[in-house]
Structure formats: C-alpha cells, structure tokens
Amino acid sequence: MASSTGQSTPLDTSTPSSASPSHNHSLTSSLLRAKPYKFATQCATVDNPDPSHKDQHGASSVPIYQTATFKGMGGQYDYTRSGNPTRSHLEHHIAKISSARHAFAVTSGMGALDVIFRLLKPGDSIIAGNDLYGGSNRLIGYLKQHNGITTHHVDTTVPASLLPYLEDPEQNVAMVLLETPTNPLLQIADIEAISRLVKRYKKDAIIVVDNTMMSPYLQRPLELGADVVYDSGTKYLSGHHDLMAGVISCDRDDIAKGIAFTINSIGNALSPFDSFLLLRGVKTLSLRIDKQQSNTIQIANYLAALGFKVNYPGLPGHPGKEIHDRLAKGPGAVLSFETGDVGMSERIVGSTRLWGISVSFGCINSLISMPCLMSHASIDPAVRAARNLPEDLIRLCVGIEDPEDLIDDLEAALLEAGAVRVIDEAGSRAKLERVGRREKVVELSSERKSVEGQQGRAVVEKLITSAPGKVILFGEHAVVHGVTAIAGSIDLRCYCFATSRSDASLSLVLPDLAYSQTWDIASLPWDRIRASLKAPRADQAPDQELLTLLSNGFVKPDVIQAVQAAQAFLYMYMHLCGSTRPAQTYTIRSSLPISAGLGSSAAYSVALSSSLLYTHGILPLPSAQISREHADVVNAWAFLAEKVLHGTPSGVDNTVAALGGAIAFRKAVKGKEGSLEGIHGFKSLKFLLTDTKVPRDTKTLVAGVARRKLEEPDTINPLLASIQSISSTAQSTLASSTLSRVEQLETLERLIDQNHQHLVSLGVGHAALEAVRAKTREEPWKLKTKLTGAGGGGCAVTLVPDDFPAASLGSLQSALAASGFETYVTTVGGSGLGVVVPPSSSSSSSALSEGGAEASRVPDVKRFEEAGSEELVRWAEAAGRWTYV
Ligand code: PLP
Predict the structure, then answer these.
(1) Does the CB atom of residue 230 touch ligand 1 within 6 A?
(2) Is residue 251 located within the same domain as residue 362?
(3) Are 691 and 596 in contact (CB under 8 A)?
(4) Is the distance from the beta carbon of residue 246 to the nearest atom of ligand 1 less than 6 Å?
(5) Which atom of ligand 1 is nearest to the CA of 110?
(6) Residues 398-439 pLDDT 10s
(7) What is its EC number (predicted)?
(8) Phi, psi (5° rounding) for residue 99?
(9) What CATH number does residue 546 fall under?
(10) So what's the pLDDT on residue 682?
(11) Which atom of ligand 1 is the closest one to the Cα of 112?
(12) Are 378 and 268 in a shared domain?
C-alpha cells in the first residue's frame, strides 16, 4: 500500500514562505517550482515513496526487488506478500496520478474488485449498472450465491433509477458500483450526481467506480465524489497487453485499512516483476492515450459519415455527452458501431488485417471484436437483449498506429464484407456509400424500373384465410427457461382477404390499425433477397439488413403499431411471390384484441403466410381438409414472420395458430432438446378472457425474469421446477380418459391458482390482474383466474365450468366492464388454420368454392373492412365453406 500524503512532491502547492520581494528572479523561480506538474510530467516522473530510503546505487529506473523475504528485524519490508519496494513505488505513483491518498496494486482488475467487495458483509446490497463488464457480473453472481449479498441492476444513465433502492428502508445498500462510459455501449453515468444522491440517502454507502475505460488520465472519479476507484491495469495503465494487474485508489483511511488487510490476508498483491512492468507502462500513459484518442476521433467520424450508428462520447449527439464532457478530459479510445446484420459484422471483423480480433482493450495495437460473441458471450442472450446490447455490435479499441492505415484496413474490410460500396473512385480516398441506406433505396427504385410490366397474376385470385389466437394456460415465462407450456387455440381469429389487381401494385390494408399502404412492386429491393432464405428453417434468423432497409425506406412510419406488421408483410411477400410478383391487395382484420398477449401477431403471421403460399401457387389449394404437411409448411413460414415481428418468439403461438387444439411445448435450451406434443381427447374448455388494457413490454418482462434467474437462482429455480410440475399435471389431466369432467375441472382450477401465484413471485404480476382475480373470486361467481402471457398487465383467463349459468357469466362480464376491463367468452382447443375461396374466384380447381359457396354471396370487401368484431365472424362464416387443419 502507498500513501501519497505528507510527502514533499511536486504536487505541493503551498506558497513558499521564504519568498523575498527583493529577489525577484528567485521569487519567480520558487513560484514556478511550486506550480503543480501537469499530468504527463507526473506520469513520467516516479518519486521515491520514502525519500529517506535512497537507492544505494542511484538507479534511475526503479529496480525489481525480486525477493520473497527481506533480512533483519524491524525494517520497512519483511515479506513480499505484505510489502515490496518495487510495488511501493508503483502504488505511490498510482496514488499520485489518481489524486488519491492511498493506492494498491493487485494481480488483476477482477482481483481488485474482489478485494473491494470484501468490504461488504452478508445482508448488504449493491446497486450496480445494468451494462457492467461481464466479469464483474459473474463475481456479483458469486456474492449472491455464497455470501448473501444481493445486487440490484439499474439504468445508471438515469440517477433517479437508484431511488427505489435508496429509499427502501429494508434495503441495506452498502455499495454502489458504477462504470462510465460503459463497455461496449459507451453509456454515460453521472458520477457526481449519483454520488450526491447516494450520500443523501445512505451516507455510509461506498461509491465504487470501475475507471478502466478512462484511466486516471481522462477521469479521476475520487474528485467527483466516489470513495473507491479501480482500474484493470491490464488495459491502458500497462498499455502493451503484456501483464495482468489491477489498481485500487481511495482517500478514506478506514477503507484503505480494510483493503490493505484483505490484500495481505489473501495474498493477491502484484508481483515485483509485474509492478516494474506496470510502472514502466504508466510513464507513457498520457502519450499513448493522446494518440489513441485522436485516432479514435478520426475513425468515429469516418464511420458516422458512412451512416453507421456509432457509440462514442466524442461524437456530437452521443447520449450523455455533456455529462461526460464535464466528468472527463476526453472521450477515450473505445467505440462501438452497429451494422444492422450479425453476418455482416462477422464478415467485417473477419476481413480486417491490421485490427487484431481480440477481447480486452487499452493496448497500443488496435483491436476489433464482437462483444456478444466474445467478451459478453457469458451474459444470457435474453439479458443481453434486455440491456439493448445489439448482437451485431462491433467494438473497436484503437491503438497508436497511423490513423490512415487503420482507416484503410477498416475500409477494405467494409468493402469486402459488402457493408459499403464505391460510388466515386476519383480523389485520394474513394467515395463510399453504405449499402442499404435510404439513398440506396431511391437509387434501387430507379434501377428496378426496367422490370416494370413483368408482374404476373396470382394463381388464386381471391382467397380468405384465417387463424386463431391462443391462450397460454400454464407455463408462461417458465417456457423461456425450458419448462413445458400448455397452450390452446381460442375462437377469436385473424382473417386475411387477398384479392388480385391489375396495376402492378401491392397493397396492405389493416383497418384495425387505421393503416393502409400501396407499393409499386417494381420499386421493392428485389436484389437484396438471399437465396438461402427461400426456405425457412426453425433456427434461421431473418435478414436484418433487408428488414432495416424495408422499415427505413419502404414502410411509412406514421402508424407506429403497423410498422412491424407492414415490414413483415413485405418481407414475406418478397420471399414468397416467386418470379411472377403478382399485384394484389391484402386486407387483414382481427376479432382478437391486438397486443393483449392472445397471439394476435401469430394469427396474423399464419393467416398471411398461408394466403401467400396458396395465392402464389406454392401450396395447392386443399380439396378437403388441410393436411398436417401443409400446416407444417405454413407454420415454418409463420415462425419466420413471427421472428420479424418479435425477434425471438418461442414458436408456441404460431404453432397453435397453425394447428389449433392444445399443445404441450418445451423449448430447446442449453443442449436439452425441445418438444411439441398435441394434447388430444379433451373436450374443449370454456374460458372468460379479460383484457385489462394495461399495456406492457413483453421483452422487458421476459428479460426481468431472466435476470432474476441469474441473480437469484435459489428463489427462481424452485419456482420454475414447481411450474414444470403444474404443466405436467395439467397435460395429463387434459388428456386423461379416467378422470371425470368434474375432477378434471377441479384439478385445473387448483393449478390455475398455483401457477398464478408463481407468476407473481417471478415478478410479472400487476394490480389490474389482481383486481380481475378478486372480482371473479367473489360470490356468486367464485371462479379461478390467472394471468396469461407476459403478465405485467395484459390478459387474464378465468375457467368457466360447463354448468356455469349464462346469466351469472353475463353479470360477471358486466361487473368487469364496470371496472374498465374488456371481456371475451371463448372456448379453448378449437380449429387451427382455415381457408375458403369465395365464390367469385376464377379458380374452380378446388372443392372449396363449391357447395357452401353456392349458398353464399360474393363477399364484400368494404363490409369486411368495416365490420365490428362479432359481425366480422358472421361475415367470414357467410363467405363460403371453410376448410381447416
Ligand atoms: N473492468 C473492465 C471495464 C474490464 O473491461 C475488465 C477486463 O476486461 C476488467 C474490469 C477486469 O480486468 P482484468 O481482466 O484485469 O481482471
């Protein structure tokens, strides 16, 4: 340990008392000598921590005292674990450049954090950022499991997000752990504001800052209110990636005492040789960072000018830039940027030569990496998604090479990967354009003019398809972690009416969202379709670049809810229209409430995919029942549409929408195979669905459970195991041929109650759902209710026994409506995908339009567009004879 106080260093700023006005030149020179040295000078000049101990030979570089023990008694050093002269020099130097009273050098950055965490005791809690270095997260997980110390992750870019924990008297918040800028998103936390806030509520809480990204050159958090600062010395302090080290600095004597005790007790102080190397590295710290930072600014500007989304606090408009500018002396030498496509990012990273593909940063050599595949791969993908960590993110850790070489190499990689293209070769640097940007769309449109007039006719001129919504009866949320979910179709459906037209245009009309748009088919970006996407596989991700292109350049943004639906529509049309590219209008309606967790998007995906497959002649129209093989093809495409709409859907909703009935679904997780079984033989069940109309963010709710599973495995894992046993019991109860109907319903009611309680314990409940439960439990109804789907609002399901009087059900619905909820009575377990060719169709090849069609009138699109929910069902029934899976 080194203490920088009480010594005469060049930092002393006291006015010399001996100054005499009669000796002007000596006054000037004394004042000049009293001026504190600038940082670069401080780095380069290593002072003796104890001037009374002079080096016997006058060595101008601190020698390596490569010895474990020291002879004699009562000397300053006896054993290297407790103290070593080389390490003392280093620690003294670190304290000086960090403006700290105390500094310590240990064997790694993680070793430093471990030592700091040992200031805590069981029962304490930590508030930490939600974009922390992965290794810090891992250690936090260990503390939770073995030491009874919990961590609350918050968005530290918003200081107020700490308040719920600071204000909660039950929370023993003993430490706040901050990183700013974060790695790799470069998010900014206001150390000053957070320190003030924390001290107001918990004056003894220790504020710790991981300063690795900045180093003491750019940011000195002790001056901003922090109590303890640590750096991974492996990074900028050493600068050459030739050693591992961690340094800790602090001002408080009590904290320094605790840290010194731990380091001596556990023995992780830095070795003499590594102390020597680190001291040598620190001497050039400011020189290196100046160069690395100026290179980074040039590279950030270069990428931003090409239109990439660049995260770097040196760029105007970076969120929190003003805060960062106040806290730090510069933006640093790490940036990240997004390409919009994981495959593209992989190609860019793989195509660089000068940039080394490596984790870590701070080295004089430039490094490139994809955090989600490398440094942050240990973080659960769901948590990564919740923290908005894009999978395509590329991180650049810039070194001291010539910036022109760095940009040349990056440019070559961008070109080779197809991320940019040359638009003008004249001049010293070719003019590039990012592929897939809006300008490109405009240009493509004019290029495509030549194919105008090639549009063919749809094989089926008019077709109506429909698909049901679903309820998850048991196992929601747990299904993400490999637990079985039981889901069933409901008799609220999505209807897709496709009609041919003759003007080389394509229209999508979504009356429920007050959206409609028409495209000139020739103007769509046809050259961007990859052959590999022609047949979807379950594990295949949609082409993100094409999706970005579609949503930025082709879908009008004014109806926010419709943007993804339209993007999915264009994506599916472009992949399923073959070379004829028929001119059509798709009008899509839903009797299902949209975004209420009842599978409306999956019903949309199935109704749309089947319509495209049949009208474009990829699947022949069924002559009688829709075969399971056809339903599977539709389901595969619908799953792709669901991925476009949701990112990472479980596959349950589209499967129920395609196949109908009820299923037991288990997702494949961590090497365990998934499964999907139909549940057969049960008589359909009546449910009351209640839409609380409380909006919720499914992604955040799912990620919240995932995070708690990581942080509180002892609480969450038993809940998941219990939900598995509920789903298994429900599956066998529904399929049972021996249980009586009454026994079946009684068991399901018990399971409904239990599963709901578990969901509340998982943290996805909501007061509105409890209000619905309380109402349905009241006399005379006494029914059992649980949330269904994501929770946090959304919908509840209430099991309605077979003999439940219709009048009672009506009065319950009125009571719920009086509380502002919307109700639907539905049966669970009915038909899946349905299809009907309305009578006017020119296609007479199918039996579908016969019989029932004779009895029905030509369906009126206007009525279809305008019908209310119940009228819609009647309109569809009158459209012809439906065929189902
Ligand atoms: N903190 C940050 C921000 C880091 O990036 C790292 C390592 O990458 C560490 C701490 C841990 O440092 P070390 O690898 O020296 O243990």
Answers:
(1) no
(2) no
(3) yes
(4) yes
(5) 16
(6) 999 999 999 999 999 999 999 998 887 777 777 888 886 433
(7) 2.7.1.36, 4.4.1.13
(8) 45, 50
(9) 3.30.230.10
(10) 78
(11) 16
(12) no
